[in-house]
Amino acid sequence: MATKNDEILRKPDWLKIKLNTNKNYTDLKKMMREKDLHTVCEEARCPNIHECWAERRTATFMILGDTCTRACRFCAIKTGLPTHFDKDEPNRIAESVKAMNLKHVVITAVARDDLKDGGSGIFAETIRRTREVNPYTTIEVLPSDMGGVYENLKTLMDAQPDILNHNIETVERLTPRVRAKAKYRRSLELLQRAKEMYPEIPTKSSIMVGLGESLEEIHQTMDDLLEHKVDIMTIGQYLQPTRKHLKVQKYYSPLEFGKMAKVAREKGFSHCQAGPMVRSSYHADEQVNEAAKQKQAMGDKLLNETNE
């Protein structure tokens, strides 16, 4: 007999996914295979892949292969000992961004604890090459904590991405259970150090809810991120990718997400996007644009107050 903890919650109606495999979708899938590229959209089984690929023609590129050295209990990306290290990958990413005519691109990677630099060198080269080929495209990067090594972060930040995104993923209490090898405080330190290196580069982080956290813990996570100078926050519903992964403890309603976003903005984030299907790179271009508007408005307000 199944116990309460063994039961799998039924997905509510608002989590139904619309499948769309139109020409945009098939063209993007074909291009990824032809250029031997990976996307987190596919590898992490993102629920938004049909909307992003078919309707918005956007994708989040995943560099450094498809095998992660960590085995986080929420993530569908395969784990093991990576063998992939392709020095030409930055060129193929840059050309793909050009072919897709992207105004904003998100580049993430598997965790590569097997590499001395944590993959920061390839990250930096991908930023530089993408910018050379696509000078009007804004570049957002989503790295792992790279072992918390300061020099690795500096290598990446010296390439000056337009936005640095590193996900805290969950509240502090649940971090040891949810994230393999990662540490809550180390992620906060990475975000703050990135801001210290280049104060003008916006920082961003994301959490999943539905893993057993309390509302008070969500609010504390907001405070922790703000204390470490994070500008943008996203909040999304955790979805169990396979039966081997952590079970969903709660499905939050759209109304509850709306309230969380309101609290986040009131606390001081320049932008917060929250919703059942929101992921850190979901509508990333809109998040960056909105944050830039808010930042400009705040700057104008301060300037006017100074002149009065």
UniProtKB/TrEMBL annotation:
Positions bound to [4Fe-4S] cluster 1 = 41, 46, 52, 281
Start and end residues of each Radical SAM core domain: 54-270
EC class name: transferase
Transferase keyword on record: yes
Keywords of the record: 4Fe-4S, Cytoplasm, Iron, Iron-sulfur, Metal-binding, S-adenosyl-L-methionine, Transferase
Any one cellular component term from GO for this entry?
A: cytoplasm
Localization recorded for this chain is: Cytoplasm
What are its cofactors? [4Fe-4S] cluster
Q: Tell me which residues bind [4Fe-4S] cluster 2.
A: 68, 72, 75
Q: Quickly give the catalysed reaction.
A: [[Fe-S] cluster scaffold protein carrying a second [4Fe-4S](2+) cluster] + N(6)-octanoyl-L-lysyl-[protein] + 2 oxidized [2Fe-2S]-[ferredoxin] + 2 S-adenosyl-L-methionine + 4 H(+) = [[Fe-S] cluster scaffold protein] + N(6)-[(R)-dihydrolipoyl]-L-lysyl-[protein] + 4 Fe(3+) + 2 hydrogen sulfide + 2 5'-deoxyadenosine + 2 L-methionine + 2 reduced [2Fe-2S]-[ferredoxin]
Q: What is its EC number?
A: 2.8.1.8
Q: Tell me the GO molecular function terms.
A: 4 iron, 4 sulfur cluster binding; lipoate synthase activity; metal ion binding
Which pathway, per its entry? Protein modification; protein lipoylation via endogenous pathway; protein N(6)-(lipoyl)lysine from octanoyl-[acyl-carrier-protein]
SMART domains linked to this entry = Elp3 (SM00729)
- GO biological process: any one? protein lipoylation
Q: Does the keyword Transcription apply?
A: no
One Pfam family matching this protein: Radical_SAM
* Principal localisation: cytoplasm
Q: Where is this region: Disordered?
A: 283-308
**Entry cofactor note text?**
Binds 2 [4Fe-4S] clusters per subunit. One cluster is coordinated with 3 cysteines and an exchangeable S-adenosyl-L-methionine.
* Similarity comment: Belongs to the radical SAM superfamily. Lipoyl synthase family.
Give the protein name, as stated in the record.
Lipoyl synthase
> What species is this protein from?
Aliicoccus persicus
The uppermost taxa in this organism's lineage are: Bacteria, Bacillati, Bacillota, Bacilli, Bacillales
Please state the gene responsible for encoding this protein: lipA
